User: Fold this.
Amino acid sequence: MNINATLLGQAITFAILVWFTMRFVWPPIMKAMQDRARRIADGLAAAEQGQQKFNQAEKEYEARVNEGRQQAAGIVAQAHKQGVEMIEAAKDAARDEGNRMIEAAKHEIGREREQAREQLKQQVAVLALAGAEQILMREVDRKAHSDLLAKISGGL
Assistant:
């Protein structure tokens, strides 16, 4: 019957071991496991939050890039518009300068035409006086007078 007493001693020792383990060993192990589970949960939450922040930052980046592209397109369009306006202004200035030059040329032509008329009048007057002088110098003969006038009018 020695086995029963040994078995009873082992059962009591096992019960004391279980009580000791439950009382002193198990709580720190459970606390360590809970701490580790909490840290893992916090890490997963932080990773999820980081992913959300990353997605938000990526969306903000895309929005800013699109905004920058739109601004660049606006600047290019504005520069193109200013270029067209400058070209139109230059065309208008050239057109005005051309019109001014045409008016100046017309005025110069008119002045030269008047000057030529004045010279022609003077030459006609000189020729008329020369013809009259020749007529007076010759005898007053109708036939000679007609010939002289024909000669003078043929010279003009």
Observations:
- The helical segments are 2-137, 142-155.
- The two ends are 176 Å apart (CA to CA).
- The CA atoms of residues 109 and 115 lie 10 Å apart.
- Residues 2-112 form one domain.
